[in-house]
Specification:
- This protein is α+β, with helices and mostly antiparallel strands.
- The chain has one domain: S-adenosylmethionine decarboxylase (4-Layer Sandwich), CATH 3.60.90.
- The protein has two helices and nine strands, in the order E-E-E-E-H-E-E-E-E-H-E.
- The strands form two sheets. A six-stranded antiparallel β-sheet has the order 5-6-7-8-4-9, with helices on one face.
- Strand 5 and strand 6 form a beta hairpin.
- Helix 1 packs antiparallel against helix 2.
- The longest helix is centred in the middle third of the chain and has 15 residues.
- 28% of the residues are buried.
């Protein structure tokens, strides 16, 4: 989804002296007439490569957040015993990105949830470039719909 097709809404606030509503950002998104808390991509990458590489996972989390226009608060990556995969999370000001890999299956499970003026699809593109999957399945959810 291109950011040109959406905007960040604002929460009701105090009135300004002209009688208009003055608002504070609540980071909800309005898109196609719907207002919601954020976009949540659940992506399955199959036939992926480099799934035991902890540095690659760490860098992909950081690069994905940057590409999406999100602010990283903390990144933690854990590599399981030999032959096991990697689990990692980037905690963002705009929510989070998590990755779980199963090298023995060539499988990556991604969870990309962002609110505000971000581009989660760009984050997904970083993971596709990093792990070069043969097949990708994505569910795109609107979380916290208003009304």
């Amino acid at each position: 989804m291109d950011n040109a097709d959406r905007h960040v809404s604002n929460a009701p606030g105090k009135s300004d002296h002209a009688g208009r509503s003055r608002v504070e950002p609540d980071h909800f998104i309005t898109e196609d007439g719907a207002t919601f808390a954020g976009r949540h991509l659940l992506a399955d990458l199959w036939q992926a490569r480099g799934l035991e590489d902890m540095d690659k996972a760490d860098q992909a989390l950081r690069d994905a957040a940057a590409a999406a226009g999100a602010s990283v608060l903390h990144v933690h990556v854990h590599r399981f015993a030999t032959g096991g995969g990697i689990s990692g999370v980037a905690v963002l000001a705009e929510s989070h990105i998590s990755i779980h890999t199963w090298p023995q299956r060539g499988f990556v499970a991604l969870d990309i949830f962002m609110c505000g003026d971000t581009a989660p699809q760009k984050a997904l593109d970083i993971f596709k470039d990093a792990f070069r999957p043969g097949r990708v399945e994505v569910r795109d959810l609107r979380r916290g719909p208003v009304g």
